[in-house]
Amino acid sequence: MKRGCLNNILFAAVLLIAFAGSTYFWFNFFVRGKSLPTPNLIGKSIADAKAICSDLGVTLKVDDTARRNSDKVPAGYVVWQNRQAGNASLIKRGTTIRVELSAGPLILKVPDLDGQSAGTAVLRLGQQNLKVGNFAYAEAMNVNGVVAADPPKGTVVAAQTPVSLLVSVPPQPWQYVMPDLIDHPLDQVRPYLEGHGLRVSTVKFEAYPGIADGIIIRQFPLRGAPVSARDAITVVVSKQEESGIIEQQQPPKPPLAPATTTQ
Hints:
The chain is an alpha+beta fold. It has 4 domains: 1-30; 38-104, 2-Layer Sandwich (Trypsin Inhibitor V, Chain A), CATH 3.30.10; 108-169, Trypsin Inhibitor V, Chain A; 176-248, Trypsin Inhibitor V, Chain A (2-Layer Sandwich), CATH 3.30.10. It has helices spanning 2-30, 46-56, 118-127, 186-194, and strands at 35-38, 59-69, 78-81, 86-92, 96-104, 108-109, 131-139, 145-150, 156-157, 162-169, 176-177, 200-206, 216-220, 226-227, 233-238, 245-248. A 4-stranded mixed beta sheet has the order 13-15-12-16, covered by helices on one side. A 3-stranded mixed beta sheet has the order 2-5-3.
């Protein structure tokens, strides 16, 4: 009984092995035997790629609508194919392989950034696959934004090349020391300050017993504080009838040359 069961098991094993071997053989004969490894066309000229595909019985289709930049494959040669090359990727005769050609190395030029703000210049450099180098600032009248770049605009550079920028900024106004305006008449103080490019922007009147009309009794900025043409000067002036703010002036144009610092 046991001998009969053993024979049956051996027979089943032999049958299974024979079936597996037969399946593998016929698979290779009918399927793999009619399939081909996908050829590697990368780096080949169009003529060479067509000859290889013709020998294998496959069709080559060149996509003329797209080109890819490459530092390794010369312009006009195959740089990409839609099927992976090698024995692991099988194709049959009559299959179409689509390829794209190289456009050669990517040529980058420093863009024209003249007059652009620093933020816009940084954005444009990033869009061109370039980096921002050093920033330098220089004061200039009536000139705003980038005035120079290193390397200069139009220079052919590699990707991620740093570009240094020189950016113009408005000149800083001349700084003065705020004088003591208390107990001085407004009519005399105003032209004196305007002669130095400073401005009395706000005047407020208050009643102050014992002081004649038109005399400054408070000021801002205070005496000794730094002040420039950009700063607004506020004064409170004595008057018999108190009132609120009566005037707010626009700043006068600053002088072309610096005056002597007020002490």
